[in-house]
Amino acid sequence: MAAVSPVPRFDRLRVAVAGDMIADHYVVTEPRGLSREAPVMVLRHRSEYLGAGGAANVARNLRALGANTLCLGAVGRDATGRELSQLLASEGVGVSDLHYVAGWTTPTKTRIVAAEPRRSRQQVLRIDREPDAPADAETRARVASRVRALAGEIDALVVSDYEYGAVDLDLARAAVELARGGTVVVLDPRRQLEGLDGVTALTPNVGELARFTARSPERLNDPLQLARAAHALLSKIRARWLLVTRGNLGMALYGEGCPEDGLSVDASGTGNVTDVSGAGDTATAVFALALAAGEEPPQAMRLANAASGVVVMEHGTAVCTPEQLALALPLSPAAPPSSPSSPSSSARTVGSS
Q1: Which of 88, 94, 195, 191 minimizes the C-alpha distance to 146?
Q2: Is 115 within the bounds of a domain?
Q3: Is residue 229 within 8 Å of 215, Cβ to Cβ?
Q4: CATH (domain of 177)
Q5: Range of the domain at 250
Q6: Residue pair 109/24 in contact by the 8 Å Cβ criterion
Q7: Strand-pair category, 122-129 with 263-265
Q8: Is residue 287 in a domain?
Q9: What is the mean pLDDT of residues 176-183?
Q10: How far is it, in rounded angstroms, from Cα 317 to Cα 282?
C-alpha cells in the first residue's frame, strides 16, 4: 500500500470568502414511466435537501479542510437564504458577515435527479431561480469595507464570481489592496476582471479562459494555444499565477517560476466520475489554502488536483477532508516541467466549475 502523503496544517489558517452565495437545491426522485399527458417522464418524489454552491461551496471546502473560514456576501431575506446560512453555520463557517437582503432572491439551482433503487443518480433537469439585479449598493459596499478591515487578520481571501453581481469594482479594489499587503488573494473568475489587476492567482476553467481571451474553448485543447491564452490573461491582469482547470485533461499552471509552456498534471483519482458539480470550487479552495500554507505553486496544483479527484466521486457539491486528501495525494501525479497534456490524454473529468 502506498504511503500516506503529508497534507499541510490548514487548520492554522484564517481565510475569508467573498462573492456570490448560491443555494444548491436537490430533488431526489425515482422514474415511474412515461406520462399519458405528454411525452415526458413521470418521476416520484423521494426526498430533497439543500446544499451550498458558488462562494458558499468554496467556504464549505475551506472549512472541511480545517481552515478558520469567514463568509462575506449576501443572501435574500427568504427561506432559502436562511437555510443556506444555517447550513454554513452548522459546519463551522463564520456567517456574521452574511447580509440578508429584503426583496432579493437568493440565487438557487434546483437539480432534479432520478434513479431506480440501487442505481446511480442522474441529473435530468436543472431549474435556476435568479435575482433580477445584484444586491443593493449599500450591502455590496459593506462587504467591500469588511474585506478591507480584514487586512492583517487573514492569511487568504478567495473571491468567487458567479455573475450575480457580488464581485463589483469596489470589492475588486478591496481584494487587490489585501494582495498588495501580502495576503494571498485567489480569484475564481466568471466574467469580472475589472479592478482585479494584481491578485495572487486566478483559477479559471478552460471555457472561462477562452472567454477572457476571445478564443474558442476547442482551440485551447492545443497545448501551445492554451499557453498563449494563459499568458495573454496573465499580462492583462498581472496575477502571479494562473491555474487552469481542464476537465478530463487535468490542470495546467502558468506564471512565476513556471516554464513558458506551463506545468501540467493529468486528472487525479480512480474510478468513474459521479458528479462534477462544484469541483472547480474545491480546486480554488485547496489551491488558495496551499499557497497560504507556504506550498510552492506546483505542489499547490497537485493538492488541488487530488482534492478535485475526491469530490467528483460524490453526488452534488461535495467537500474533501484532510484525511481524504492525504489518501488521494499519492494518486495525484506531480507536475513535470512540460507542456499541458494533449486531448488524447486518458484522464477522468475533474476540476470543472
Answers
A1: 94
A2: no
A3: yes
A4: 3.40.1190.20
A5: 10-22+53-106+133-331
A6: yes
A7: unpaired
A8: yes
A9: 97
A10: 9
SS3 track for the chain: CCCCCCCCCHHHCEEEEEECEEEEEEEEEEEEEECCCCCCEEEEEEEEEEEEEEHHHHHHHHHHCCCEEEEEEEEECCHHHHHHHHHHHHCCCECCCEEEECCCCCCEEEEEEECCCCCCCEEEEEEEECCCCCCCHHHHHHHHHHHHHCCCCCCEEEEECCCCCCCCHHHHHHHHHHHHCCCEEEEECCCCCCCCCCCCEECCEHHHHHHHCCCCHHHHHCHHHHHHHHHHHHHHHCCCEEEEECHHHCEEEEECCCCCCCEEECCCCCCCCCCCCCHHHHHHHHHHHHHHCCCCHHHHHHHHHHHHHHHCCCCCCCCCCHHHHHHHHHHCCCCCCCCCCCCCCCCCCCCCC
Tell whether 112 is covered by a domain.
no
Please state, in angstroms and rounded to a whole number, the distance separating the CA atoms of residues 265 and 8. 20
pLDDT at 134 over 80: yes
Task: Give me the number of domains the chain comprises.
Answer: 1
CB 353, CB 280: distance < 8 Å: yes
Residue 1 lies in a domain: no
Check the CA dihedral 125-129-133-135 and report its sign. Answer: negative
Grid coordinates representing 330? 499519492
What are 190-212's pLDDT values in tens digits?
987 889 999 999 999 999 999 99
- Cell numbers found for residue 257: 517560476
Round to the nearest angstrom and report the end-to-end CA distance of the chain. Answer: 32
From 24, 188, 266, 281, the catalytic residue: 281
Reply yes or no on whether the pLDDT at 277 is more than 50.
yes
pTM across the whole model: 0.89
Nearest-Å Rg of the Cα atoms of the chain is: 20
**How many other β-carbons are positioned within 10 Å of the β-carbon of residue 49?**
12
HSE, side-chain direction, 13 A CA sphere, residue 6: 4
Is there a contact between 288 and 156 (Cβ–Cβ < 8 Å)?
Answer: yes
Q: Who's near 142: CB < 8 A, 6+ residues apart? A: 99
Here the cell at position 64 is 472541511
Q: Does 281 qualify as catalytic in the annotation?
A: yes
